[in-house]
Specification:
With about 100 residues, this protein is an all-alpha fold. The protein is about 35% helix and about 0% strand. It has 5 helices and no strands. It has helices spanning about 15-20, 25-30, 40-50, 60-70, 80-85.
Length: about 100
């Protein structure tokens, strides 16, 4: 049976977790893995929905995600919010959901 979970298709699927779960300025370079990721939106939505505060998820650092969550505390569906406002994805906005 084929794996249908989004994580199976992530650009970081074979990356060392230590490279993505870094602190401070190292997170900026870790975001590069997300640049061409086909499931960037799914990853970011998952991290925002579950309030994951550590590591790089969907091309955003923990600081960026916290700021986004604080700025929009009433968001019910991060998928709908990000699809409606792709500029929220930040500097890696070249990603377009399927």
């Amino acid at each position: 049976m084929e794996d249908q979970h989004w994580t199976a298709y992530a650009a970081c699927v074979e990356a060392c977790p230590d490279d993505l779960f870094v602190e401070g300025a190292a997170q900026r370079s870790a975001r590069g893995v997300c640049q061409e990721c086909p499931v960037r939106l799914e990853c970011l939505v998952d991290a925002l929905d579950h309030k994951v505060f550590f590591g790089v998820w969907g091309g955003m650092t923990e600081r960026q995600r916290r700021a986004l969550l604080r700025s929009r505390p009433d968001v019910v569906s991060w998928r709908e919010e990000l699809e409606a406002q792709p500029d929220l994805l930040g500097p890696l906005h070249a990603y377009r959901p399927r």
